[in-house]
Specification:
The chain is mostly helical. The protein has helices at 23-32, 35-56, 66-88, 109-115.
């Protein structure tokens, strides 16, 4: 049975819950995660993120299959969680807007490509 990600990225399966389709969903997950969970995900992506992006770069973004799209969403989640680890040092920093108040208007890049609509 195929996993969430392409075969070369099975080591990332324990982090599949991070591969959410929108920026808002990924940030909400980041805010709910403990610092230890965020650190474990961050550490795993440090070891696999560059390889994942190299792999994904071999495909047109509008032709990614479901497993490749999940891998891309995981890479995007890595960018979201990196601020927790590198800047804030906590999942819910007190000096930023609560994630529930931040609603990106550009969210949903994958729906744009799926429908052929312009961004």
């Amino acid at each position: 049975m195929p996993g969430t990600f392409p075969d070369d990225f099975t080591a990332l399966e324990p982090f599949s819950d991070w591969a959410l389709p929108t920026e808002h969903d990924r940030n909400s997950y980041r805010w709910r995660a403990t610092l230890a969970e965020s650190q474990a995900f961050y550490d795993a992506m440090l070891g696999h993120g560059a390889t994942a992006l190299e792999y994904l770069n071999g495909f047109p973004i509008d032709e990614l299959d479901a497993r490749q799209t999940s891998l891309l969403n995981l890479c995007l989640a890595f960018t979201e969680v990196s601020v927790t680890i590198e800047m804030y040092g906590e999942p819910q920093p007190k000096y930023v807007f609560p994630i529930a108040r931040f609603i990106p208007l550009h969210d949903g890049w994958n729906e744009t490509f799926a429908t052929g609509a312009s961004a």
